[in-house]
Amino acid sequence: VAPRSTEQRKADTLRLLAETDDCWVSTASSDGTPYLVPLSFVWDGETLTIATAANSRTVANARAGGMRVGLGGTRDVVMIDGELAITPIADDRSRADAFVAATGWDPRDEEGAWVLLVLRPSRIQVWREADELAGRTIMRAGSWVA
Amino acid sequence: VAPRSTEQRKADTLRLLAETDDCWVSTASSDGTPYLVPLSFVWDGETLTIATAANSRTVANARAGGMRVGLGGTRDVVMIDGELAITPIADDRSRADAFVAATGWDPRDEEGAWVLLVLRPSRIQVWREADELAGRTIMRAGSWVA
Question: What is the pTM of this model?
């Protein structure tokens, strides 16, 4: 198969964001120690929302250095960097409800403090095999590449 | 289904390591900026070997802060931390040949300098759903949990 066009990659990415429940979230501590976990998310057309424990290592790391998200398979990759906002789950009921609707899991029913990690993509890179490394950046500085 | 036993998780993990071609490699720059890419690997029973470009961001980050590897799916997770050695590909012909045999790709045929990232797991955590978070550590300090 030929490498996909930019347009096709964007369509595939939007479908993957809508249909996928989990992503790999990479963060790092301030001394440069990498951390990686899979977490559930929901996509609302503009942002990914992830709910996680307020005292988790992911949150501590993300506050300091942001996060990078991977989804799809290792041969159908979507890599996302973006602007991150971290909000107590009680402060954004509409996102929290959307998260519950998508994942079937409501952290508000559980013990402890929970936050929403809201990532607005600024760069999205998308590729399958090596022949798609060229043209892999389909969003740059928050704008879809034409 | 009931949560898997430690023994079953070890067996599943060894099979996944043997059968899987790619993993998610998370690293971080010394200022704590996370980085994440999927890379091909081969498992020899004791170590994962990954070949990548000597001048890549992954290698620069890994030299300073090590790496964390995720494989399997986000609902069939294997997370690996370990001791990392970085070797020019020409210095370890047997690992390089094993990598080529497993992946069908020989970096030595390409331009540029290449290295092998050799990760010897010291901790392995394995889980599917939330009910498997307890007991997820199946290797600790380099030893399989009994």
Answer: 0.95
